[in-house]
Amino acid sequence: MTTTETVPTGLGDARITWYEAQGRPARLVVALSHGAGGGIEARDLRALAQSLPPAGVTVALVEQPWRVAGRKLAPAPKRLDEGWRDLWPALAAAGPPVVAGGRSAGARVACRTARELGARAVLALSFPLHPPGRPESSRADELLGAGVPTLVVQGASDPFGRPEEFPAGEHELVEVPYGDHGFAVPKRAPVTQEDALAVITGGVGGWLDALR
Question: In what residue span(s) does the KANL3/Tex30 alpha/beta hydrolase-like domain sit (predicted)?
């Protein structure tokens, strides 16, 4: 079952699309926000929203206030965090432990706020370790400072940080072969787009099972 909820925040209305766990009470809520350049229609977010509910996990796809308002540019990181904090009670009200997550900028928000909000864990999709071509401008401190179990799912060809660039730490990492920042794979690659999405859903599903 899918429902949509509007949540007032100090930055305007946010929107949560709920994909309820199927066939049993939810054991977890996985809350996933979008990046700075797109919305909840991203292929990885949609794939997880379809694959996790049959496994007893409710998925909440979160549209931040700036996106709901139709603005094209995301606000500063501090403001993104404020919006996430304000909508967090609506996520926690569902009852089960909440895994905070998102893709790209949404992953950064989840990492920066996880400990203070009491997240069970963090799911970081396409974590932007650095701006393209600028590895010296690392954001590794955000990832390493999450303070809760963390899974990074990263495309092998992501210009914002390839898997081998990530520092050692307590986080786990799933590599998506040939994937770019949006997990798209070239047509000439020996894997299909469906194969890439299966790596994501399988890796995330297995990791969530281990959080029991």
Answer: 29-199
